[in-house]
Design goal:
The complex is a heterodimer of chains A (about 650) and B (about 425). The mean pLDDT of chain A is about 85. Chain A has about 650 residues and is an alpha+beta fold. Chain B has about 425 residues and is mainly alpha-helical. The longest helix of chain B has about 35 residues. Chains A and B meet through α1 and α2 of A and α9, α15, α16, α17 and α18 of B. Chain A: One of its GO terms (cellular component) is plasma membrane.
């Protein structure tokens, strides 16, 4: 029997071996030949997670953080784990009703499914967070608190300087420079946040996690071997003085205009106020989009940084520059005088002068302190008509080049984006405007800061630095140092630019003239006890074409100054739109700002002046009525005049 | 016989089988552990509280080893004597399940006793094997007679039928493996060929359009008649046979298979077969097979290393402690490990056949072949299922998959065989 069955045993063995061979062949193809399965397995189980570093912080000149990261909490929900909780109590804490509660749960399930976390209540306000944290154990594990970093502005000021961050736009994402970014990433949209995005952002880390069949992370992949650590963004240290900035924003409330203060010795910007402004915290956190559209459509244009985007005729504040050109070219000496009789008539039309008494422009110093229009339009003519150039065209071009070197008519290159260039007419523009037929009379107003010249307040503050430094300046900028950085970006701001080669004594006549303006002239409101202030008022005529008709609007008040006269520490330009005389509306603001910066306090004597300035409203009533800005206003929001006064004058 | 008292307890044990058995249960334990363990789990606490499959499997293993020891200490005559009784008992249990069983994952095949669940369908494999061995070895049986063959087939198919009623098709199919034993004991080889052809016929009926198949059959039949026309002239019966085969094949393909697929088989069974054949593309239906193939395929040549498989550890593979336990081995140890693993099983099967052939008693031989057949059937179907060669049929991998009923049944199957083998010199039963 056994012998007879021998072949059958073999058959059974062969069946077994055959089947096993079939399986092994299949396994060989599956495991060794076919490569797609390991990719499929990774797609199944490996989760690539971007780890966001904390964004760099921004400090002012005294190391106070003006922009930092704040931890806020989201309440997140895992619908599948919500069991046996006191829904009523949770609703009570969150101040929502049960209908809303159910709606949010359903939304979470629709969005992310039952077993994954979804945000239930984003960015909890501190008081709700506090209550929730105490009783969180009641709602776990279905509900958890999750940390989230947002940008926060403790001083609620300097909105247009610091800028805000926003989600990257698809068209930006397509640019090669942004290849490291992903959809949904945040990046600087304006201000310093944009310019210094590369250092603020830090380095994103990538973490590989393994996930299970329900997409829940289960821990590091390969013990984190392929992970890259996140490196925190670098901190910026600014020249900005946040106290000065806040004071500026308060003084400018209910007015349209701007203030720019620069440290002439470094070019560092101490304050840059554009009014009206807004609380930068509005553009951070959960209501960002809603607030942005409100700001965007507001009639007062708070997102428009007037300090470097608004262009104005400088008016008389331009006159020291006109003088500098003539002095530098040796066309006049400080003792040069002009017999002004109350008007300039040499060009066939009469240009009025505020003064008519004889000798008010007997020399440069007197001409500046009296702001003699005739003197300076004459000076412009002398400059461009000088025999040195051979023709008025060459002369005007030379004058244009001077203006450019003073920083007018082109972007200075401040380290926040969006700067406007202003206008200074060069020869080409003159040819165009006058169809090639023009002479020194055509645009003689530019000598007194009217006509074919438009400047930004930033440019005027920078021009003051040139006079304060007696012929040199540094490009105005905010960032002084970047922590742990090579600071390649900052090199251009440390380079000294020398523009005029006038001797000190010659400068003195301009500077003394400006000193007289504050001492005894139109700028008396800018006086500071114990400090010699040099300034120049300007009242720029403001004509606008409304419905095709040339309408004369209320003048822009301009005031430029620097102080102290020797070893100047602050140069400032103030413009208050549609207010009136520079001495009345702009000079007091400049004076208080400089005093605050130099003395760190404002003398009690100026309390009434501050009250007047705070209460002063120049904003067009129609615009103001349509504006919804009062509730959005930053450092000035909610404070009454007395409250603000109490901040600066304790008693 | 007095000497026997002094002989060591382990006298006569077949060490290769013992070693292979232990190797497989250890691999099983480690695989179940790998399928379940998460970093940071407190293993001892889990074992103490019996809260995980591997902890429970340790317990089942201990129970199995106790059973093995008891079997080893029992006289081998006991098993021959008890074979029919146990078969009856097994059938009773199966019927009891029909009456008072519990549904687990869609199959009505479990008995719940206290805290324990027990699947009699596993246990009756042992009973059936014993009864078959008993019947074939009995002196009255002449296996060349049709009646004996029918009785033997009935012995295997009665439990099978009851288990089908319990909706546990996978385990029911296992009983067909006993036909391999019967083949060894003299069932005509042509049956094997017929069975094989039948499988091919079913597959082609599913894969190829039935009308085209009919044409192919007809062409082949005409060709065969043409080439064997001389033989047909000699005997008409040859023509009848050829035409009979043609008619049967045609009817089978045209009517029986479609009828079976629409009326007899359940929806999920049809879908599983279609998944295996690559006809079903619904991601839900193909999920199990796809995930299992991804897990095994991603193992590569040397595997990802023990406890490093991402697919098995994070629940991508369904039923990974039981039916899909091979995924863990395939993913963690790769082709190399799978090869060794298959090698261990092949060694076990060939060793059992070797043991079977050295038996002097028919009972022991039939029994041992039964053990080999059942293990082989389980192995082939289970692995083929995980790599997409067979439809998803829920049967465990012997000694490796999690499950007390399965582990104990296979332990008893093997140890009874070892006991019989140790006593092979005693008598001709």
């Amino acid at each position: 029997m056994s012998v007879y069955n021998q072949p059958r045993r073999r058959v059974i063995q062969l069946i077994i071996l055959g089947m096993v061979l079939l399986i092994i062949t299949r396994l060989f193809f599956l495991q060794v030949v076919e490569k797609k399965y390991s990719k499929l397995a990774d797609a199944n189980a490996v989760l690539r997670k971007v780890v966001y570093p904390s964004r760099g912080m921004i400090y002012d000149r005294h190391g106070r953080s003006v922009l930092r990261n704040e931890v806020m909490y989201d309440l997140v929900v895992t619908p599948a784990s919500v069991k046996n909780i006191d829904t009523n109590y949770l609703c009570q804490i969150l101040q929502i009703d049960k209908v809303e509660f159910r709606k949010r749960i359903v939304n979470a399930i629709v969005k992310n499914g039952r077993v994954r976390q979804s945000v239930f209540s984003p960015l909890l306000p501190p008081e709700i967070f506090g209550r929730l944290q105490e009783s969180m154990y009641l709602f776990q594990p279905g509900f958890e608190l999750m940390q989230r970093q947002i940008r926060s502005y403790p001083y609620a000021a300097a909105a247009n300087i610091l800028g805000y961050i926003g989600e990257i736009a698809p068209q930006t994402l397509a640019l090669p420079a942004y290849k490291d970014y992903q959809m949904g990433d945040y990046l600087g949209m304006t201000g310093l946040e944009k310019t210094y995005e590369n250092v603020l952002v830090g380095q994103r880390g990538i973490q590989y996690l393994v996930k299970d069949n329900l997409n829940r992370p289960q821990g590091p992949y390969e013990k984190g071997e392929f992970d890259t650590a996140a490196i925190a963004g670098k901190n910026l240290r600014l020249s900005l003085d946040i106290d000065l900035q806040v004071l500026g924003e308060r003084l400018m409330r209910n007015k349209i205009g701007s203030v720019v203060a620069i440290d002439p010795q470094t070019g560092g910007i101490l304050a840059m106020v554009s009014s009206p402004t807004f609380d930068p915290n509005l553009l951070s956190g959960s209501y960002r989009t809603r607030n942005f559209s409100k700001l965007f459509v507001d009639t007062t244009k708070p997102l428009f940084n007037r300090a470097m985007q608004g262009t104005y005729p400088p008016g008389s504040s331009m006159k020291p520059l006109t003088a500098l050109v003539a002095l530098d070219e040796g066309i006049i000496t400080p003792s040069f005088g002009y017999p002004c009789r109350g008007a300039y008539t040499a060009c066939g039309r009469s240009i009025a002068c505020e003064h008519s008494e004889p000798g008010h422009a007997a020399n440069l110093r007197l001409a500046i302190s009296h702001s003699c229009n005739s003197y300076f339009v004459n000076l412009y003519r002398l400059e461009v008509d000088s025999r040195k150039w051979g023709s008025v065209r060459k002369g005007h071009q030379r004058w244009y080049e001077y203006m450019r070197s003073f920083g007018l008519g082109h972007r200075l290159g401040v380290d926040i984006p969006g700067e406007y260039s202003g206008t200074v007419a060069d020869t080409n523009m003159m040819n165009k405007n006058y169809h090639g037929q023009w002479n020194s009379c055509s645009e003689l107003y530019v000598g007194m800061g009217q006509g074919a010249v438009a400047v930004t307040p930033l440019q005027m503050a920078n021009a003051m630095c040139i006079i304060a430094n007696r012929g040199s300046y540094f490009l105005p900028h905010f960032v002084q140092t970047i922590d742990n950085d090579k600071e390649e970006q900052l090199k251009k701001y440390r380079e000294k630019h020398t523009v005029a080669h006038v001797t000190d004594t010659v400068y003195k006549s301009v500077i003394y003239g400006m000193e007289d303006v504050v001492e005894s002239g139109t700028g008396r409101n800018a006086q500071i006890e114990g400090v010699i202030v040099c300034g120049k008022t300007g009242t720029a005529q403001n004509n606008a074409r409304i419905n095709g008709e040339l309408v004369k609007l209320k003048n822009h008040a301009f005031f430029v100054a620097f102080a102290p006269r020797d070893n100047p520490r602050i140069a400032i330009a103030v413009i208050v739109e549609n207010s009136g005389y520079g001495g009345t509306y702009a000079a007091p603001i400049a004076g208080m700002m400089m005093e605050k910066y130099l003395h760190d306090t404002i003398s009690v004597k100026k309390k009434p002046m501050m009250k007047t300035m705070l209460d002063y409203v120049t904003i067009d009533p129609v615009i103001r009525e349509k504006s919804k800005l009062d509730s959005l206003n930053g450092a000035t929001a909610k404070l009454t005049t007395d409250q603000i006064l109490n901040v600066y004058f304790h008693n | 016989m007095n000497d026997r008292q002094q002989i060591k307890l382990t006298q006569g044990i077949d060490w290769p089988i013992m070693g292979l058995y232990l190797a497989l249960v250890m691999i099983g334990l480690l695989s179940i552990f790998a399928a379940e363990y998460r970093e940071g789990d407190n293993i001892w606490q889990n074992v103490m509280h019996q809260s995980t499959n591997y902890a429970r499997q340790v317990l089942w293993l201990l129970v199995s080893l106790v059973l093995a020891t008891i079997i080893w200490l029992t006289d081998s005559k006991f098993f021959t004597a008890m074979a029919n009784l146990m078969y009856a008992f097994g059938l009773l249990l199966l019927l009891l399940v029909l009456a008072i069983g519990t549904d687990v994952k869609g199959s009505h095949s479990w008995l719940v006793l206290g805290g324990f669940r027990f699947q009699p369908a596993e246990f009756t494999k042992l009973c059936t094997n014993l009864a078959l061995a008993k019947y074939l070895s009995s002196l009255e049986t002449d296996f060349n007679k049709l009646r004996s063959r029918l009785i033997a087939a009935a012995l295997a198919l009665i439990p099978c039928a009851i288990i089908i009623l319990q909706d546990e098709t996978g385990l029911a199919l296992v009983y067909f493996s006993f036909f391999l034993v019967m083949y060894r004991e003299g069932l005509p080889g042509v049956l094997l060929v017929v069975a094989f052809s039948g499988i091919i016929l079913v597959l082609s009926a599913l894969l190829v359009d039935k009308n085209i198949l009919f044409i192919i059959f007809s062409v082949v039949t005409v060709a065969v008649i043409y080439f064997s026309r001389r033989e047909i002239k000699r005997s008409r019966s040859r023509l009848v046979l050829i035409l009979g085969v043609w008619a049967f094949c045609s009817v089978f393909v045209m009517f029986i298979v479609p009828f079976a697929f629409t009326k007899v088989l359940k929806d999920y069974q049809v879908r599983r077969i279609e998944v295996m054949l690559g006809k079903e593309n619904d991601p839900k239906a193909t999920y199990n097979t796809r995930q299992s193939m991804i897990a095994i395929g991603s193992g590569g040549f040397f595997g990802k290393g023990y406890l490093k498989g991402t697919q098995t550890r994070f629940d991508f593979v369904p039923e990974q402690s039981t039916d899909f336990i091979f995924c863990t081995i395939g993913e963690d140890f790769g082709f190399f490990g799978s090869l060794i693993f298959m090698g261990i099983f092949v060694a076990l099967l060939l060793r059992i056949i070797f043991i079977a052939e050295r038996q002097r008693s028919t009972f022991s031989r039939v029994y041992a072949y039964g053990v080999a057949s059942v293990i082989f059937f389980h192995l082939a179907i289970n692995i083929a299922m995980t790599i997409g060669l067979a439809p998803v049929i829920g049967i465990p991998l012997p000694l490796v998959s999690y499950g007390g009923s399965s582990l104990m049944t296979f332990t008893m199957l093997i140890f009874i065989m070892l006991r019989l083998d140790a006593d092979r010199q005693m008598v001709l039963r």
